[in-house]
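for the writeup, i need someone to sanity check this before i put it in the appendix. the sequnce is what the collaborator sent (i think, or maybe the updated version? ugh). structure was predicted straight from it, no edits. if anything looks off just tell me and ill rerun, i have time this weekend
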Amino acid sequence: MRKSKAGIVPNGSGGVLLVRKKDTWILPGGNPENTETFKQTLEREFAEEVPDLKISSISDNEIISKTSGLSPNKGTMIEISVFLVNVTETPITLRTANEILEAAWAGPEVLNSNYSGPIKLSNLTRQILEKLWITEKPKI
């Protein structure tokens, strides 16, 4: 099972950063390369996916631990550990790069069953956001 790292980036208004890869919206992040630490992985992935977003700090501990399921794009099993990522500013629009097609700030409304907006969450991202906003509610 692949082990991936993702970042929750709060915008100060109750929302978090999501990125779109193909047709699915996910949290920014990815898989460690070689001997990278989780912080190095997140720094590299953020630089590759949303290059204009400047990280100011990454939490030392997971805020949501080890959520497992099918990867939305590869269809393989993945385990995601989620860390709080603070940035120097939260611009409304963000330039994206590599496989990321767009980025957006989203709030808890994307979890509503009657939500009809443009954001289609992956199942894993939905599980993580439910833990963030509904069940576990870690302080962010």
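The first helix runs from residue 38 to 49. The beta strands are 2-8, 16-21, 24-26, 29-30, 55-58, 64-70, 77-87, 100-106.
thx in advance!!
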